[in-house]
Design a protein that fits this description.
It is built from 8 helices and no strands. By secondary structure, it is mainly α.
């Protein structure tokens, strides 16, 4: 996003700040990978976590949009003229199949029709079909590389989850939280 914003006339520091601040909303707004991992590991309902993250994520997004608009207006940053409802409708129709994936994921989880793992499989197949056959942006020769990259990313996450579980077991076995609580309470 930063090169595109700089090309449009925004300063580099503003572009970096907007990108860094907005990256914090991703894990909060559903469907997010961190929510699914936390829900699966802790036994918390992923559907309920999605509902709990939607409103705070939207509030954060609106607050950031307002702040960015205010700064851009005060500093006289470039802006594009309103393109009209026709362009808005064409853009929505162009993005419909991609947006529908969010509905598929959240609907599957909230309805109880599928588990997070099953929903991930359905979403992956849906993304493949939409990317390869509807948008035609996914060439078949790129699929093996995408599968390998996904496996490497999943392995990295699973290693972290494994170490976190081992660390949690050590904390519980050695009663470290109770020792820390006792040390803090002995001060007062």
């Amino acid at each position: 996003m930063i090169p595109g914003m700089k090309k449009a006339g925004y300063p580099a520091d503003f572009s970096a700040a907007v990108t860094a601040a907005s990256s914090t909303v991703g894990p909060i707004i559903p469907p997010s990978v961190p929510m699914i991992i936390v829900g699966a590991l802790s036994g918390i309902s992923v559907g309920k976590m999605f509902l709990a993250g939607a409103i705070p994520g939207l509030l954060m997004g609106f607050a950031m949009m307002f702040t960015a608009w205010l700064i851009a207006k005060r500093r006289g940053f470039p802006r594009q003229p309103w393109q009209g409802f026709g362009e808005l409708g064409r853009s929505f129709l162009g993005a419909f199949w991609a947006i529908a994936m969010t509905g598929l994921i959240i609907g599957g989880l909230l309805s109880g029709f599928a588990t997070p793992t099953e929903t991930a499989v359905v979403a992956s197949v849906y993304a493949f079909v939409v990317g390869a056959f509807i948008y035609r942006d996914l060439p078949m020769r790129a699929v093996p590389k995408i599968v390998v990259n996904s496996a490497v990313s999943a392995a990295a996450i699973l290693v972290l989850v494994g170490f976190a579980n081992a660390f949690g077991s050590i904390l519980v076995t050695e009663q470290i939280p109770q020792a820390i609580a006792g040390a803090v309470l002995s001060i007062t």
